[in-house]
Design goal:
Helix 3 packs across helix 4 and helix 3 runs parallel beside helix 5. 35% of the residues lie in helices and 26% in strands. A six-stranded mixed β-sheet has the order 6-7-8-3-9-10, with helices on both faces. It has a four-stranded antiparallel β-sheet with strand order 2-1-4-5, with helices on one face. The radius of gyration is 18 Å and the shape is globular. The two termini are 30 Å apart. By secondary structure, it is an alpha/beta fold. The structure holds adenosine-5'-diphosphate and magnesium ion. The site of adenosine-5'-diphosphate has 11 residues, from strand 2 and helix 1. Magnesium ion (MG) binds next to helix 1.
Length: 247
């Protein structure tokens, strides 16, 4: 089943074509990566998919529904979440409060006025903290968490909206090798156990090849190679873009 379909997508900034006639598809349950040098257009692509940038032309559909140029809020309500380079953590709140806030924001519940605020979404919040390995840090002020735990918290916040499709833009940026693998193991677990379709960007090639089942290579806004990690590794065009790096 196709969960995401992108057709002839274009976006320019002034004279710069940041997204150049991109065609892209994801099947439900996939764990895929987008790679490409700095400035290739990876973040722009994610911003288009989540409604943060308006497209110049082309079409984006999610589960068969045309969501092109929908607002980020509407796209999120439909089941698409993101954790991006720009953090969405409230640093002054505790880990628990951040995750609960994310769950409540999505529920838009018919609030029972007599439910004490602190009990709202308690069970779900605790479950998400457990899944993301943050239970130990429940009452810590988020701003004081380690870099790795902040990334876990961003994942927990993204999961709070109960997405079916999750975009992760450089989820391991700034992490040590060990933290990187812990985070990516968690991403893999979310994909397998929660049946979440996930698309991530990453610049560390060993991470990309170790975790993604499918890879797309972006270069100057265009897709220049696509396929299994093995296929991409052997692709001559991809090798040229990564001149000097071992693919
Ligand atoms: P990547 O994430 O692959 O490093 P980006 O999508 O951030 O690449 O950027 C692609 C190109 O688009 C870059 O040249 C960048 O400077 C440009 N760009 C991205 N966002 C904007 C913006 N809001 N305004 C102007 N130029 C932008
Ligand atoms: Mg980027």
């Amino acid at each position: 089943m196709t969960i995401l379909k992108v057709e002839n997508l274009n976006k320019a900034f002034g004279g710069l074509q940041a997204t150049n006639d991109v065609n892209f598809e994801m099947l439900t349950g996939e764990l895929s990566g987008i790679i490409g040098p700095n400035g290739a257009g990876k973040s722009t692509f994610f911003n288009l998919l989540t409604g943060y940038y308006k497209v110049d032309s082309g079409r984006i559909s999610f589960q068969g529904k045309d969501i092109t140029n929908w607002s980020p809020h509407r796209i999120s309500r439909l089941g698409i979440a993101r954790a991006f380079q720009v953090s969405n953590i409230y640093p002054a709140l505790t880990t628990y409060e951040n995750v609960r806030q994310a769950i409540l924001a999505q529920q838009k519940r018919t609030l029972n006025l007599f439910t004490p605020a602190r009990r709202l979404a308690k069970k779900e919040t605790q479950e998400l903290l457990e899944v993301t390995g943050l239970s130990r840090h429940t009452d810590m002020i988020s701003g004081t968490l380690s870099q790795g735990d902040k990334k876990r918290l961003e994942l927990a916040i993204a999961l709070g909206s109960k997405p079916e499709l999750l975009f992760l833009d450089e989820p391991t940026a700034g992490m040590s090798g060990e933290e990187t693998h812990e985070t990516m193991d968690l991403v893999k677990q979310l994909n397998q156990e929660m049946d979440l379709t996930i698309l991530f960007t990453e610049h560390d090639m060993s991470v990309v090849f170790g975790y993604a089942k499918r890879l797309t290579v972006l270069h100057q806004g265009s897709i220049i190679a696509e396929g299994s990690p093995e296929e991409v590794r052997k692709n001559e065009t991809a090798q040229k873009v990564y001149l000097g790096e071992d693919l």
